[in-house]
Amino acid sequence: SPDGTRVVTASYDKTARVWDAITGRPVTPPLEHRDIVTAAVFSPDGTRVVTANGGKTARVWDAGTGEPVTPPLEHQGLVFAAAFSADGTRVVTASRDKTVRVWDAKTGTLVVAPLEHQGFVTAVGFSPDGKRVVTASTDRAARVWDAKTGELMTSPLEHQGIIYAAAFSPDGTRVVTVSEDKTARVWDARTGKPITEPLEHRGIARVAVFSPDGTRVVTVSEDKTARIWTLPLHAGSLEDWKLLARCSPFMFSHGVLTANREPFTMCTAITTSSASLAPQASAKNSPIIVDMDLK
Q: What is the pLDDT of residue 232?
């Protein structure tokens, strides 16, 4: 739970359970389902739990009493994952029926039309500000959606195999994905372009998470290793900065700061489009790796 006092678990025995993190004793009666429970997550304030299960539904529960808070959140296939928005007002679910659905966490009603993939949706999560949703799929693409309208916000974030996980960075500017193609990728969440070279494992990559400060990513693979990758801190390639520098009214000439005699004529357009200097893939953006053997 957010305050660290409780643990929630999901099981093939068709229950989720809330436990006291100190004593290990159950806090509520079992949260019972009709099929295996695939995921269980606390709300940001710790008062509720959302569960996903093989019975084609997700459920929102009172974390103190174990009573359901909403009607079942229904799909047409097994539900792989579920998550709350940061403010706890919405729940997003991902399913084998090739859709993602955004629900009102209080009423259990749909907030937007289903978000559709061409394959099973394996993972889902909100951006920190709750305005976007990132999804991962067996169709070899992750996607970033507007959580209110359901519209796509970037081009597909493509791998060469099934994508097993996708998550936003803590500041919401980047997305990390992991895939059957043995790589993790870090993407610009605004443009959908890769920020680094592929982060390579020797086996299928299953999990990836940003550090709290967003400067590192940890990945877990079937090659029996976890890896910590230190990401580049600078935004943009050298060419980005060279182009932007041409807009400056100043320049260095023989070590002396002087007026720029040949300012770039398209400065206004470049300054507008490059204000955030969206990072681009570059050989110079290779991450630093720390390996951890999981044998």
A: 74
